[in-house]
Design brief:
Elements lengths: L2 E8 L3 H10 L5 E5 L7 H4 L4 E2 L8 H11 L6 H9 L1 H11 L13 E2 L9 E2 L5 H14 L4 E5 L1 E7 L19 E6 L4 E12 L20 H8 L4 E2 L4 E8 L12 H5 L3 E3 L19 H15 L4 E4 L5 H7 L1 H9 L9 E10 L2 E3 L11 E3 L4 E2 L12 H19 L23 H18 L6 H24 L4 H22 L18
Parallel strand pairs: 1-2, 1-9, 2-6, 9-16, 15-17
Antiparallel strand pairs: 3-5, 4-5, 7-8, 8-9, 10-15, 11-14, 12-13, 13-14
Helix pairs in contact: 1-6, 1-12, 3-4, 7-15, 13-14, 13-15, 14-15
This protein binds flavin-adenine dinucleotide (FAD) and succinic acid.
Succinic acid binds next to helix 8.
């Protein structure tokens, strides 16, 4: 049996659910989540969501900060749209039931993060993402037209290629008819047909050894879109968050929000010396790429495994009111952040690049949209400004939904789509082949394609990756499909794209820093 839905949504984070809620009055919506509904990067977001709320802030300042962080590689018209539509989208989240902290006068209490010239981060304590996810999940679960399937892993987008049609040589003519998805309960691969599909599968942090991303962030949507021949863009711009908790063995790494620095916490060496003023006039609140590179440099100079974040100047009252999760987490491993400094290291955090979309979430493939972290709208350019990501989901999922609503009536389901072909595949009983290759991949990416790069390191990474690619494709072709082999294959595809795009960029700009090319004047 083949399922048929009007709107298929891959991913249950902010991007997927906002879109689902907006198209659901028009037709049947199916949301697939490869894990539990709320197991998303959205749920992990701490600092908040950036938006212009009150004077003296204004749209122009937020636009300027976004362009500055992105080193001007942003699409200016997309930046304008995202920021000018921000207040409306925030109001919608509030109307749907999201609570953001307020001050005693009843106004939203706004925090400040790196690269922002004003206080403009709406937040719910230090667990804003959880609050947004809760709001969206509650609404989606209660909408009669939305069906949510947890533990369903999307393997590949279905295009003309699967119909054995003489695939047109023109990439512009490719159409998406749905996905093949693995039902984790039955281990069967199901064919799901849709008039319109949205990819909202989030990021790819697990390509690296140290990441703040949840385990689900393995770049599946990026790899699926690449295999379907969609255009992808800007993947060399991997954002490393400067301050994740140094706690060896813990995966994902626990984030120490930038908002803590916004409230006065300072970066120091292990000897207790503040160092950020050497690198930027904004000190510990400099843009993320600069702070991450400064920490990387300090660690290399001293040989230390971490630096410290000193939050002791912030009152205990404020810590407990604004940062209860961080306080509790650190306390659980013996660090009282009101008395002790916090050991921190940079960690892979966010992919600025992704599936190229226009300002309506449309990809280069017909009937296929992308939104959220998996998409590259052009908002971030060479570096994302803190807390602009949840904003991007809110604005561009809305716009994708509006566009999908306007076009869905003219689309028919595709007939004659074959079932998944599992012929000749046997059970792979050697999980070690997959787990070991995953570790090798993460080591290659962290050692050669991290915060600081060079031509030689990138070449070395590509050469090593080639071996892993061949071995994994061979294993994939022969094995009964499993989530683990698909994720490894996807991460290798994504790593390839990151390295390839990094090799093509013969300059240092934003998040792509190469010792072989002097940094551009900013
Ligand atoms: P996600 O929320 O990650 O959702 C992805 C969904 O896709 C999940 O449901 C997953 O199961 C599903 N999925 C993935 N692959 C498949 C597959 N093959 N088949 C089926 N389903 C699949 N941004 C901000 O703006 N402000 C912040 O304060 C902030 N803090 C952050 C803190 C942390 C620790 C992290 C990791 C990120 C933070 N970010 C923040 C970034 C932001 O949270 C994410 O970019 C954003 O939430 C991504 O939303 P999304 O809907 O695109 O993806
Ligand atoms: C943070 O809270 O520091 C993360 C914010 C973000 O990634 O936008």
């Amino acid at each position: 049996m083949q399922r048929k839905v009007d709107f298929l949504v891959l991913g249950s984070g902010s991007a997927g659910l906002i879109y689902a809620l907006k198209v659901a009055d028009k037709g049947k919506v199916l949301v697939l989540s490869k894990s539990m509904l709320d197991d998303t990067a959205t749920s992990y977001a701490q600092g908040g969501i950036a938006a212009v709320m009150y004077s003296p802030d204004n749209y122009e300042k937020h636009i300027e900060d976004t362009l500055k962080a992105g080193s001007g590689l942003n699409k200016k018209e997309v930046v304008e749209i995202a920021i000018r539509e921000s207040s409306e989208r925030i109001q919608e989240l509030v109307d749907w039931g999201a609570h953001f902290d307020k001050d005693q006068s009843g106004k939203f209490s706004l925090a400040r993060e790196g690269g922002h010239s004003e206080f403009r981060i709406l937040h719910h304590q230090d667990n804003t993402g959880l609050e947004i996810q809760r709001t969206l999940s509650d609404r989606a679960k209660n909408h009669p037209n939305i069906e949510i399937l947890e533990d369903y892993f999307a393997i590949d987008l279905i295009t003309q290629h699967h119909l054995n049609e003489e695939v047109t040589r023109r990439r512009e003519d490719i159409r998406c008819f749905g996905v093949y998805a693995l039902n984790e309960q039955t281990q069967a691969v199901e064919t799901i047909l849709a008039k319109i599909t949205l990819v909202a599968t989030g990021g790819m942090g697990n390509v690296y050894q140290t990441t703040t991303n949840p385990l689900v962030s393995t770049g599946d949507g990026l790899a699926m879109a690449y295999r379907a021949k969609a255009h992808l863009d800007s993947l060399e711009f991997v954002q490393f968050h400067p301050t994740s908790l140094y706690n060896p063995g813990e995966r994902p790494s626990f984030l120490i929000t930038e908002a803590l620095r916004g409230s006065g916490a300072i970066l120091k060496t292990r000897k207790g010396v503040a160092f950020m003023s050497k690198y930027h006039e904004l000190g510990s609140l400099a843009p993320r790429d600069i702070v991450a590179r400064a920490i990387d440099n300090e660690m290399k100079l001293s040989g230390d495994d971490y630096v410290y974040l000193d939050a002791r100047s912030i009152s205990k009252d404020e810590i407990i009111r604004h940062f209860p999760s961080i306080y509790a987490k650190c306390l659980s491993i013996g660090i009282d952040i009101t008395k002790d400094m916090i050991p921190v290291v940079p960690a892979a955090h966010y992919s600025c690049g992704g599936i190229q979309t226009d300002a309506h979430g449309r990809t280069s493939i017909h009937q296929l949209y992308a939104a959220g972290e998996v998409a590259c709208t052009g908002l971030h350019g060479a570096n994302r400004l803190a807390s602009n990501s949840l904003l991007e989901s809110a604005v561009f999922s809305h716009r994708a939904a509006m566009d999908a609503l306007a076009t869905v009536d003219a689309i028919q389901f595709m007939e004659g789509v074959p079932e998944w072909d599992a012929e000749g595949r046997v059970l792979n009983e050697e999980m070690i082949l997959i787990t070991q290759s995953t570790k090798e991949l993460q080591s290659i990416m962290s050692n050669y394609v991290g915060i600081v790069r060079s031509d030689l390191r990138l070449k070395r990474a590509m050469d090593r990756l080639e071996i892993l690619y061949k071995e994994t494709e061979d294993l994939y072709e022969k094995s009964i499909v499993s989530q683990e082999i698909c994720e490894l294959r996807n991460m290798i595809n994504v790593a390839y794209l990151i390295i390839k795009m990094a090799m093509a960029r013969k300059e240092s700009i934003g998040l792509h820093f190469s010792i072989d090319y002097p940094e551009k004047e900013k």
